[in-house]
Structures are given as C-alpha cells and as structure tokens.
Write a structure and sequence with these properties.
The chain is an alpha+beta fold. Helix content is 25%, strand content 38%.
C-alpha cells in the first residue's frame, strides 16, 4: 500500500508532533512544527543555528549529522497516533525550500527570506509509518493498525 502523504502532513500540521534523534546511543526528543509533502516524499526543516548571526551549532543539528536515523510521533485529541521512522537526507534545491515556506506560515517567524542558508530541508528516506488505529480491534488489542477496514489506516494509506 502506498502512503497518502497529504493526509500525513495534514495530521502533523493539525496536531503536536515530536521529533526524535539519537546522541551517544540515547534518544533525544523535541517538538517540531513543520512538515510538507513534495514529489511524493515527506520533508522536515531545521536550522544549523537558532539565528543566521548565531555561531552556536544546535544539538539537534549535530545529532542528525552524526546519525540521520529519526522517529516522529504525532497524536490527535481522540488518541489516534502515528509513528514515522526513517533516515534524513538533505535536499538543497531552492524549490523545496520555497514550498516549505509557502506551506508552513509559521516559517515567517523563523526565516528572513526564502533563501536563508541557515535553514535546511530534509527528506525522510526509507520511511515507515505505524498507526494506532480507530477500529475496535486496534483499541482493544493496544497494537498498531493492520486491519483493512480501519478508518485510520484508510486515511493514511492508498490502495
């Protein structure tokens, strides 16, 4: 089944999501707020520093460069949730950056123009999505959705 990335991005943008990296073999979790779909891939954005004039490298940046394996977890008010895992790969194309800025108005607070060099866009490669569905079996079993008739699964996966 193919993933319906438009619905995944919508879910991430409407709900909180946490971004997990690894440092010294230990997980590091933080909230993130921007994601987009482009060319059938899921993208996130981060900066090397907190501001273009700043020199201190952010810990998240160091962690991703050292180990690009990440996980994202998001949930909604009805306690449906998803876990996304994959590997980050930078995409420096200007059209990718322009779409990220256009799709995420929160970027207005973090970027001075569409070509800020300190903002970097990453595609999530080798992506896997696990869903906690909204069908009775998923909720009763406490497991991940694997049921063809589950509404949650049908929202995020295409036939």
């Amino acid at each position: 089944m193919d993933i319906d990335l438009k619905n995944v991005v919508e879910f991430l943008q409407e709900n909180a999501f946490c971004f997990t990296t690894v440092e010294d073999g230990k997980p590091k979790v933080r909230p993130f707020c921007t994601a987009m779909e482009f060319e059938e891939k899921l993208f996130v954005i981060m900066s090397e520093t907190m501001h273009p004039e700043q020199k201190d490298i952010r810990p998240v940046w160091k962690q991703v460069i050292a180990n690009p394996n990440i996980a994202i977890c998001s949930w909604d008010k009805d306690r449906k949730w998803m876990r996304i895992t994959g590997t980050l790969k930078e995409d420096a194309r200007i059209e990718v950056k322009r779409k990220m800025i256009a799709d995420n108005r929160i970027m207005d607070d973090f970027t001075t123009n569409e070509v800020d060099d300190f903002q970097r866009i990453f595609a999530i490669e080798d992506m896997q999505i696990d869903l906690r569905g909204d069908c009775a079996k998923c909720c009763c079993d406490g497991g991940f959705c694997t049921h063809d008739d589950c509404r949650q699964r049908n929202k995020f996966f295409k036939e």
